[in-house]
Specification:
By secondary structure, this protein is an alpha/beta fold. The protein contains 14 helices and 16 strands. The protein has 2 domains: 187 residues, 3-Layer(aba) Sandwich (Rossmann fold), CATH 3.40.50.720; 207 residues, 2-Layer Sandwich (Dihydrodipicolinate Reductase, domain 2), CATH 3.30.360.10. The strands form 2 sheets. It has a 10-stranded mixed sheet. Strands 3-2-1-4-5-6 form a 6-stranded parallel sheet, with helices on both faces. Strand 15 and strand 16 form a beta hairpin.
Length: 438
């Protein structure tokens, strides 16, 4: 890819300074325009870190933009490398090299960007190292593993304003979500005072089994990385880490990172002043540690936001939508998910209407590519991803304590509660460190 010009640098610096602003529909549209006509010097070369699912999926969509090449894949498990190259990246597998240590990708000067699609506990370490190595980053959600990590990532991006960090909250690039935002901004819902995000499903159980030796193709110490070392367990990898305290953030981080971000974006919300939460493993009682039942109430100025999680139910109160957002105003209500949105007017003589779904995945990677080329700001900048992740972390902290915690939005810190404040971050296992950003 061509080197960064002074004009492009100044553009990106301005976007970094203003990254709290909502991205417009022009991001996706501008990225799409001319994607099939990229010259050799305009092409972006990417490496994928984390290959089980999302990394390979994002890589496959990047290939479809017509302007991005996937040159390398990295995973500490040979099985996941085989899976990615045999399935989602199969059409170009013979042109992609394999690595098991992500640092090899960061050292590769031919790579313009990396996709970080690892377990949550690796997100901050890999992102700050990638930025320091001069790479752009497409980062899977949730942006961070804890509040301390998120602050470090924002600080690292601020140090490198010519580098793009886009979070994989792809709803921000979806046209029907952008249309919903415009409808709300134009007063379609009136005064909005309540909103809700839900994740209601029948989650798989994780059986309790004995620890064992890791398989030969897995570099287990690398998989653990900055997290506390613990014995290998076959039920720990490759998805169930989501539900363990040391590595994931539960479905609060897994799906709440999407829907809480949608609500913050659509309603121009910043950060709450408190979060009251209750929950636990009430029904499934398996090897998961994060709650299977969780209710969180966030307080914003003139607004309350409710999060509901249930892993054991088929009943979906949102008109059959169990994974969605509800927004209530004095003119009516909206239900929105990836399948579109519907407006329910308050006035009995008014007509509601439905809005069909639009592409998310391809539009979001096009947004990232446009930002890397200096054509537009990222649709989901790290500052916004960090703030949405804060809501997830506050909800999880309050749920573990089963009470309310107070939060100072200006300092991005829990206040007046030493026990809760200690849960905002943790020490990294050597040799990994976020210094000098923490």
């Amino acid at each position: 890819m061509t080197s960064v010009t002074r004009r492009t640098f100044l553009k990106r610096s301005a976007w970094a300074a203003a990254s709290g602003a909502a991205a417009s529909g022009a991001v996706a549209a501008g990225a799409a325009a001319g994607a099939e006509e990229m010259g050799a010097n305009d092409r972006i070369t990417v490496g994928i870190i984390g290959c089980r699912n999302r990394g390979a999926t994002v890589g496959s969509y990047m290939l479809r933009t017509g302007g991005v090449d996937v040159a390398a894949v990295c995973d500490c498990d040979d099985e996941m490398l085989d899976k990615a190259l045999a399935e989602k990246l199969a059409p170009v597998a013979d042109k992609i090299r394999r690595e098991k240590d992500f640092r090899r990708l960061l050292d590769d000067k031919s790579l313009d960007a990396v996709v970080v699609a690892t377990p949550d506990h690796w997100h901050a370490q890999m992102t700050v190292m990638a930025l320091d190595a001069g790479k752009h980053v497409y980062l899977e959600k949730p942006a961070s593993f804890n509040i301390q990590d998120g602050k470090a990532m924002v600080a690292a991006q601020a140090k490198h304003p010519d580098r793009v960090v886009q979070v994989g909250t792809q709803q921000r690039s979806g046209q029907h979500f952008m249309d919903a935002k415009a409808f709300i901004a134009e007063g379609g819902l009136g005064k909005v005072a309540f909103c809700r995000a839900t994740f209601i499903t029948e989650r798989h159980t994780v059986p309790v089994v004995a620890d064992s030796e890791p398989p030969a193709g897995l570099d287990y110490p690398m998989w653990i990385g900055p997290a506390p070392m613990r014995p290998y367990n076959v039920e720990l990898l490759h998805y169930n880490w989501h539900f363990l305290y040391d590595f994931g953030t539960g479905d609060m981080g897994n799906w709440g990172a999407h829907w809480l971000d949608v609500l913050r974006w659509l309603l121009d919300l910043d950060l709450p002043t408190s979060a009251a939460a209750y929950g636990g493993q009430f029904v499934n009682r398996d090897a998961k540690e994060w709650p299977d039942t969780q209710t969180v109430l966030y307080q914003f100025p003139e607004m309350t936001l409710l999060w509901e999680l249930r892993h054991w139910s088929r009943f979906m109160p949102g008109a059959g939508r169990g994974n969605c957002c509800e927004i209530d105003g004095d003119k009516g209500s909206m239900l929105i998910d990836r399948g579109g949105w519907k407006f329910y007017p308050r006035a009995r003589d008014a007509e509601g209407h439905e809005h069909p779904p639009a592409d998310l995945e391809l539009a979001h990677v096009r947004s990232f590519a446009a930002a890397v080329r200096g054509e537009a700001g990222p649709a989901a900048p790290i500052v916004e991803g960090h703030k949405s992740a804060i809501l997830c972390h506050l909800g999880n902290i309050a749920a573990r304590l089963n009470r309310s915690v107070q939060f100072d939005p200006a300092r991005e810190a829990i206040v007046g509660d030493a026990e809760a404040e200690a849960m905002m971050g943790r020490e990294y296992r050597a040799p990994w460190s976020l210094a000098p950003y923490v």
